[in-house]
Amino acid sequence: MTWETIRKDATPGVTPNLADYERTRADFTWSRARAALAGLPGGSGLNMAYEAVDRHAGADRGGKVALRCIGRDDTVSTVTYAELARRTARFANVLRSLGVGRGDVVFTLLGRCPELYTAVLGTLKNASVLCPLFSAFGPDPVEQRLRLGDARVLVTTASLYRRKVADRRPSLPGLAHVLIVGPGSGELPGTLSFDALTAAAPEQFTIPPTSPEDMALLHFTSGTTGAPKGAIHVHEAVVAHHATAAYALDLHSEDVYWCTADPGWVTGMSYGIIAPLVHGVTLVVDEGDYDARRWYRILGEQRVSVWYTAPTALRMLMRTTPRQERHDLPVTYGLSALRFVASVGEPLNPEAVVWGQEVLGLPVHDNWWQTETGCIMVANFAACEIRPGSMGRPLPGVEAAVLERGEDGRALITDGKVTVLEKPGVEGELALRPGWPSMFRGYLNDKERYEAAFADGWYLTGDLARRDEDGWFWFVGRADDVIKSAGHLVGPFEVESALMEHPAVAEAGVIGRPDPVAGNIVKAFVSLRPGTEPTPAMKRELLAFARRRLGPAVAPREIAFDQNLPRTRSGKVMRRLLRARELGLPTGDLSTLEGPA
Question: How many Å apart are CA 49 and CA 376, to the nearest integer?
Answer without folding.
Answer: 20
